[in-house]
Amino acid sequence: MLLRIIARASSCMPKIPRDIYGNSVDITKPHQKSKLTHMTDAEEWVHKIPPIIVNDDVIRCGGVKATGLGHPIVYLQLNKRDPTEPETCKWCGLRYLRNPHLNH
């Protein structure tokens, strides 16, 4: 009987998200959700890289090949409604921003 009460009480408690090692993960912080499924914190490291300023409206991203983080080539459009917001590559997370001083 006591085990049933304990089982019911534990099932009512909110579950704390844990990574694959059993450590708790605060998913309310930015770039933490990937720790639930991956073994690295690469998403946090990539987010620390500031947006890359470019002089074109379209850029080509292939990842960071020097560190082995290459991926298939993708093209990103930068001339959009809000030019102050960086465009993020869906593969590697690098962010690109059109040069605000460049007039086309």
CATH topology of the largest domain: the name is: HSP40/DNAj peptide-binding domain
CA-to-CA gap between the ends? 75 Å
The biggest beta sheet reads: 3 strands, mixed
E-strand count = 5
Radius of gyration (CA) equals 21 Å
Strand fraction equals 15-25%
Number of domains: 2
Structural class: alpha+beta
Helix content estimate: 10-25%
- Can you tell me the residue ranges where pLDDT is under 50 for at least 5 consecutive residues? none
Categorize the overall geometry: elongated
Q: From the 3D coordinates, which CATH architecture of the largest domain would you assign?
A: Sandwich
Strand order of the largest sheet: 1-5-4
CATH superfamily of the largest domain: q5lls5 like domains
- Please work out how many helical segments DSSP would assign: 2
Q: How do the SSEs run, as a string of H and E?
A: HHEEEEE
Question: Can you give the mean pLDDT?
Answer: 76
CATH C-level of the largest domain = Mainly Beta
